[in-house]
Amino acid sequence: MGNRTLAIIKPDAVGKGHTGKIMDRIISDGFTILGARLVYLTREKAEGFYAVHKERPFFNDLVDFMTSGPCMPMALEHEGAVNAFRTLIGATNPAEADEGTIRKDFAESVQNNAVHGSDSDENAEKEIAFFFTPDEIHQS
Ligand code: ADP
Ligand code: MG
Questions:
Q1: What CATH number does the domain containing 81 carry?
Q2: CA of 110 to the centre of ligand 2 (A)
Q3: Ligand 1 and 19: CB distance under 6 A
Q4: 116 is annotated as an active-site residue
Q5: Per-residue pLDDT tens for 12-65?
Q6: pTM of the predicted model as reported, rounded to 2 decimal places
Q7: Neighbours of 20 (CB within 10 A)
């Protein structure tokens, strides 16, 4: 079980000024932030990040959304980081997210759902490398 995951505070949450509150929830839940940066995704980068969804009907709207303003990718450390973070953020659709989760409290809709979290250890490492070079990640 890996100890790292890639989180993104998405443009809806950054735009509404929720970055600090969401980072506070992440830190309070015991995650260590190994790297973080404000990023303006290009269309090409957003399409690359979500390439696994390119056949889905919502893909174009998702890319529009992810390029609508800055987002904040973060490399996070926690025991069993992938599952721990997905528990903290809740279901993809905020209407189905548990009480106290980040998506329940900050997401607007199934698309504009405030945060991303990796879905496997393998994808976590790929997604961290998508945004950060090894020397940009704090080695704890
Ligand atoms: P998650 O982010 O929970 O891992 P997915 O990987 O299934 O969810 O989807 C990636 C992102 O695509 C979601 O976080 C959300 O922004 C968007 N998305 C997923 N399903 C839908 C949908 N049915 N309609 C619109 N956007 C969606
Ligand atoms: Mg996913």
A1: 3.30.70.141
A2: 12
A3: no
A4: yes
A5: 999 999 999 999 999 999 999 999 999 999 999 999 999 999 999 999 999 999
A6: 0.97
A7: 9
